[in-house]
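Attaching the record inline, Q. Sequence:
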Amino acid sequence: MSNYFTVLKLLIKNMLLPDKSKEVKRGKRIGVFVLLGVSYLFLAAFLVLVVLLLGSSFLQLGLVNEFITVIWAMASLVVLFFGIVGLLNYLYFSRDTEFFLSLPLKPSTIYLAKFTVVYITELAVAALMLVPALITTGVIINANAFFYIAGLIGMIFAPSLPLMLASVIAVPLMYIVSFFKNKGALSSIVLILLFALFFTAYFLTVSKMNSFIDGSQDPDIIVQNVQKGIRAAARILYPLLALAQLTTLTPVFGLSVGVSALVNSAIFFGSVAALLAVSVLITNFVYKRGAASQMENVKKKSTGKERFVSGSVLKSLVKKEWRELIRTPSFAYQCLSCVVMTPLLVAIFSFGGGIFGGGADADTTTLVAVGPASTAIMWFLSFGFTLMFGVGFNVASSTAITREGQNFYFSKQMPVPYRTQLLAKKIVCMLISVISCAVALIILTIATKDIINLFIGFIFCILYAYGFICFSVFFDLRKPKLDWSVPNEAVKQNFHMMVPYLLNLIVSVIFILAPIITLLFVESYAAALAIIWSVMFAVGIAVAVIFHFVLIKYADKFYDRLSI
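Structure, as predicted:
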């Protein structure tokens, strides 16, 4: 155990070591903290509002524990989404991996120390969500002091469950990957598949809630079915439900309050301990081999019969860009996760609650039953999510130059025009966004049977995605973060790349609200669609044309002034 604390102390000290090469002026540092503080206040206010609105509904249905379970689950999902790539990067692709593997330490000791460091950083993210949400929940239910004490303890341990579950699955998979030659590409595939697996599990949990809703018109039966669905979904996450029951001192299994608290504690902390024991046991056998293999350089043997055939410069650059992306697991996960997440989100929204009733062909002349359940309104809501995630979450464009890192000087020495190099990057980024949007729109069409909007929407997605990609590449080219040591620094710790994402988020919300308002106030469905698509295409064409020429105009200038 002493070795564990020694390694942990060393890792934390290295993590907190200041970077003297990046001197930040005091005024700028204060400004950044003020901006982050104001942003968090808005986030906390939004969380409080959501808890107040949803909490009162759950309270009326007698689902207090289930609501608290939802809060734990949302925080766990955030930890999983942001933590899994950091965990695998820290375990396998960190600069200190070779050093620690050479020490006379058990693999489980290195794993536990690295896991603890990752967990501490992700716990801070979870706490930002859980603190305002749990305090607001406690006020709503008039909780006693024990609720807050147990909630604090739960906040420390609950987010560890998704990370340990992910490591129990990921570590053996990385061990299997170690036996193949193309470790980088396979590691990327493993990361993306793990993300899809956990996101699908979340989708199935949501679907469990809706499986009890049978379309009855009786309000009492509807309420009973909703209660059954929510309780069934909460039981799937039973360790978190046990934690919720512990915080509210809810009797279970016909036991007294005190004994029930002990039982719920045993279920929750037993689950944490069991996952920890399994993860330690697995890493003792497979972690060292999997981590060591990531540092091996596989050399292709020359047979003397190789032939080099000249080809298109652009085609070669596209292949280079794609190979570098897919062979770096952190980049592949961050840049390609939108291909998985966007269709899944649209599928959840389209089929999770049966919100589309009858499809767009139910009425082709007028919009009937205008309201939250209207097919047309729900279509544009899903379409807005497609733009928000399928285009905005494509960080390949906002890190197009940054990903070059220390190898950027190759781009400057290459006898190829800068515009051609940028075109190759744009083609790869476009492929990612087009595939994400196309699959999402196909799912949306299956749910709505709306073929016309499928083709119109797809053409608009191509236009808008191209404009967004040109802007993102231009923005990254102005001030890329080339001085990074591990891929995580280039993406996850690069605040500059958040600007295009936040702007797309605002634009996507506008693209959601504007069609809904138009559909509400224009009686003719055909006229409303004509207005909506005319305005959106005008914006899409303007964005694509403007930023296309801006990028071309300043490409040479910004490339020439860049240096490591």
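The CA atoms of residues 56 and 140 lie 8 Å apart. The chain has two domains: 2-14+27-293, 314-561.

More tomorrow.
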